[in-house]
Design goal:
It is a single chain. The chain is an alpha/beta fold and 170 residues long. The chain has one domain: Double Stranded RNA Binding Domain, CATH 3.30.160. The chain contains 6 helices and 5 strands; from the N terminus they run ααβααβαβββα. A 5-stranded mixed β-sheet has the order 2-1-3-4-5, sandwiched between helices. α4 runs parallel beside α6. The longest helix is centred in the last third of the chain and has 23 residues. The chain is globular, with a radius of gyration of 17 Å.
Length: 170
């Protein structure tokens, strides 16, 4: 159990380090034409627990499309200013006690320029993110983590729409 405690501490520390949703990070979303959805392949333990990359990708893309945010293909994103990608990552650790500890995150990654040397144009930077650590029961791991990742995607959607209002089509 000490190993599990150590892992939780590391996940809490890592999870809090980059999660940022504020007025400055939301400003980096203004004018985005859409996003390419990039799902990190879950580890074998996560897949064995019933959560797959395909499920996360379908869930994420559906949420974006429902509110009118364009989901770009890889090629479209490569031709879009900023080459924007919405990166989804989930890591789980199964305990001996019948539960999973997970870390989930959603981040917008796009190209950025160095202020001191704008000739360097290939840097990719995380300009908006959210995420957290949680614990779910073994029997409900896939649904619990999928739901939490969905919440993170909804946070992105709210941030995006706060600076890119979408007019409903009639």
């Amino acid at each position: 159990m000490n190993k599990m405690l150590a892992v939780v501490v590391v996940l809490l520390w890592a999870g809090g380090a980059g999660a940022v949703d504020d007025i400055l990070t939301r400003a980096t979303l203004k004018g985005l034409e859409g996003v390419w959805v990039l799902i990190e392949e879950p580890d074998q333990e996560t897949i064995a627990g019933g959560l797959t990359r395909e499920q996360l990708e379908t869930d994420t893309e559906l949420r974006l499309r429902k509110v009118g945010i364009k989901v770009l293909t890889f090629d479209e994103a490569a031709r879009t200013p900023g080459r924007p990608r919405l990166y989804v990552n989930v890591t789980t650790i199964k305990s001996d006690g019948g539960f999973y500890v997970y870390y989930g995150s959603v981040a917008l990654i796009q190209s950025a320029l160095l202020e001191r040397n704008q000739n360097i144009q290939t840097l990719m930077a995380e300009t908006w993110s959210t995420g957290s650590v949680g614990i779910v029961g073994e029997s409900g791991m896939a649904q619990g983590v999928r739901g939490r990742v969905g919440d993170f995607v909804d946070e992105f959607i709210n941030a995006y729409l706060s600076v890119n209002p979408i007019t409903p089509q009639r």
